[in-house]
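Re-running the complex after MR caught last week's input typo. The corrected sequence lines follow. Everything else is unchanged.
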Amino acid sequence: MAEVHLQPTLPPLFDGLTRRVDVDAPTVDQAIDRLDDQWPGLRDRLCEPGPSLRRHINVYVDREPAELTTALGDGSRVDVIAAISGG
Amino acid sequence: MAERTVLMVSTRKGLFLLESDDARQDWAMRGPFCEGWPIYHAVLDQTTGAIYASAASEWHGAAVWRSSDLGDTWTLSSEGLEFPDTQMKLSKLSGIAAAHGRVRVGAEAAGVFESRDEGGTWSLVSTLDDQPGRTKWNVPDNQPPGHLGMPAILNHPDDPEHYWVIIQGFGVFETEDGGASWTPRNEGLRADWPIDEPGVGYCVHKLVMAPTDLDRMYQQNHVGMHRSDDGGRTWTEITDGLPTEFGFAAAVHPHDRDIFYVIPLDPGHGRCVPDGRLSVWRTKDAGETWSRLDNGLPQRDAHVGVLREGMAIDAYDVPGVYFGTSTGQVFASADEGESWSEIASYLPAISSVEVATVAA
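Corrected-run output:
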């Protein structure tokens, strides 16, 4: 089970979504799919068609920069962070 | 029945609602809504009472927000808002229009999407593929500043299949079959730059239709004000008498097809009102003559701009006129522009102002 930490702009968009969610998935991409299963539309907020992560969305797995294909292990920490953007 | 007047003010940091009664003297503000997402345009569907707001977040992409209770609760959806052609990237949503049980929204890259389930899901209607010059529209080097794509959609009030769109930097296009086919409607417009393809390449900023005569249209263009008396098929320039030929915002009187409002701007880099004097200009004779309206508006050091969706007019017997500035002020007139008051002063940069009346 991976421990996903979401940026604070996401929970207000989805009923019941909290900043920390536990997800059982082998990759970042599939972790986002699991989140989208529970909160439809969430994938669209993080990913563009392709798929790829949106330009200003950064994901880290166990503190290392990650991509959608990055593998997750039991106990992995996933941080979804918005890049500094705008003013 | 008593009526409630609702202004929808779209800003770079969310949507705000300013509300008053039918006297339109005292205003109360609510917001920001839509979680502070940049909102380009918001409208109220008079049939359902729902507000729709087109939005594009730098972080979370483009989506349409919807409220069915005048802002108390909101949902958003982007389901279906994507181009099947992977070469076309949807960077933002711009002009939005709701009527006839359909919500339509323009996008960049230039395309129109439609929802028939009150904004729950969307489908691509058209990217106007067969239009002259179309292959150049989405090349970044050819795009005007702002990259708005399709910044406006103007519905025919009676025919659900009939509407007009603006493609930024390329002109007006009309469909009478729901978007299956299109015709450029730019005949008579002026361009101060080379036209590569006959009929397209014109920089239309704002298009409005007179409710009392559906053949009467006006447009604020990059170069000049223009009037059409045949539903946009041909255009005649009516710039003479205005302080500049440039501007973005425009509004037409709800009860008189000859009365029309614009806010001329300096056409240079500043794109603010000339000389720091904020004024609205009105014609009462379809553009033959123009008069300056500035009673209550700041007349010195007011270096503000008003964008293409930044002005609106209500439908009361004596209509109210409203506009919002790129520096966050909203001005209102309850007497057809004769006098003005500032009803909001410190909002984020305003991209659009729309007005609606609902039962109190």
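None of the earlier attempt is carried over here. The interface with chain A takes residues 35, 57-61, 63, 76-79, 82-83, 86, 89 of chain B (CB under 8 Å). The first strand of chain B starts at residue 3 and ends at 11.
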